[in-house]
Amino acid sequence: MNKVKKLFLRWETFLILVIVLEFVVFGSLNTKFLNIKRLFSGLNQFIPVCIISLFVTFVMITGGIDIQAGSIVGLTSITVGVLWNDAGLNIFVACAIALISGALCGALSGFFVAYTGVQPMVVTLGGSFLYSGLALVVTNLSANEAYQGISNFPDAFRALSKAELFGVVPMQFAIFFLLVIASYILLHRTNYGRKIFLCGVNPHAAEFSGINTRAVIMSTYMLSGFSAAIAGILLTAYLGTAKADMGSEYTLPIITAVVLGGTSNLGGSGGVIGSALAALAVGFLRIGLSLNGLSTQYLDIPVGLLLVVTVSIRFARTNPKLRKLFSRKKRQTVVTRSN
């Protein structure tokens, strides 16, 4: 009985209920929302956010934050395009180089966070500008005009997002599902994952216990950069165009998904299942509102409100003064009723 109670009290269960509620509400307002093929099609462009949020979770559990992932998406996209179109490399060799580049970008920022002690917000904000600028530099190496992008990719590359499993499930959704499993095992079932949590709970105690906290923290940013590179490749394959500004609007949805998923913005707690469910919930919210007439330029408003409300509730739950105040009022209410 206690196990059932704990299951229902888990944050992931709440997120599942939110997703179910979204299906009920948006499905009743517009039946197109219940069309599975259309729903997957609408979610395709949001899958990169879902993928990146899995590994930004690692970063935030250590007490950091990563707001540069969107810039790495754009850098990856244009790198793939230029290496294939202008350098003449095989498309999958270009993808491999882009993946390494994304991981190195994450590692660079992670190095400054871990080894210099600079605030992660400052480092990743600088990284965001740096990698956006590098994407423009790479664009200038191409014979194509920047506004046109690079297109006409091979069919084998386009199949990364256009192929469907069982004729319904897009390939990139299947890749996301595999990454959920891989990231869950890495974070929750390995010694490396336990080191990440210890770094977030108490980095000094983790250091005294023999953990190389700097290397662990740096590695989380490397994983985040690598996931952004995966997202950039999949987005390029889906849209069929490589551009430097891809992913520029992803920062808010990524952070919202991770925080809404139950990861503390102070570090030390969180999980990839929660982030995955929250990312899907945010994606379904955007699709549902769009299908019901809300202009795409206003879709960040409800996402921003969701982020503020989530952080506020989490702060209220963990703030000792507020908890003491509410418990005192609860006792007063009980005493009043008994009298």
Tell me about this structure.
- It is a single chain.
- This protein is mainly α and 339 residues long.
- It has 16 helices and two strands.
- A hairpin with a 3-residue loop joins strand 1 and strand 2.
- Helix 4 packs antiparallel against helix 14 and helix 8 packs across helix 12.
- The two termini are 33 Å apart.
Topology:
Blueprint: H1 2-9, H2 11-29, H3 36-43, H4 47-61, H5 69-85, H6 91-116, H7 120-139, H8 155-162, E1 164-165, E2 169-170, H9 171-188, H10 191-201, H11 203-208, H12 213-239, H13 251-260, H14 272-291, H15 300-318, H16 320-338
Antiparallel strand pairs: 1-2
Helix pairs in contact: 2-14, 4-9, 4-10, 4-12, 4-13, 4-14, 5-6, 5-7, 5-12, 6-7, 6-12, 8-12, 9-10, 10-12, 13-14, 13-15
Short characterization:
This protein is mainly alpha-helical.
The CATH architecture assignment turns out to be Orthogonal Bundle
> Proportion of β residues?
under 5%
Total discrete domains: 1
Query: What's the CATH class label?
Result: Mainly Alpha
The whole-angstrom Rg is 21 Å
Helix share, percent: over 70%
Strand order of the largest sheet: 1-2
From the helix content, strand content and strand pairing, which structural class follows? mainly alpha
> What does the largest sheet look like?
2 strands, antiparallel
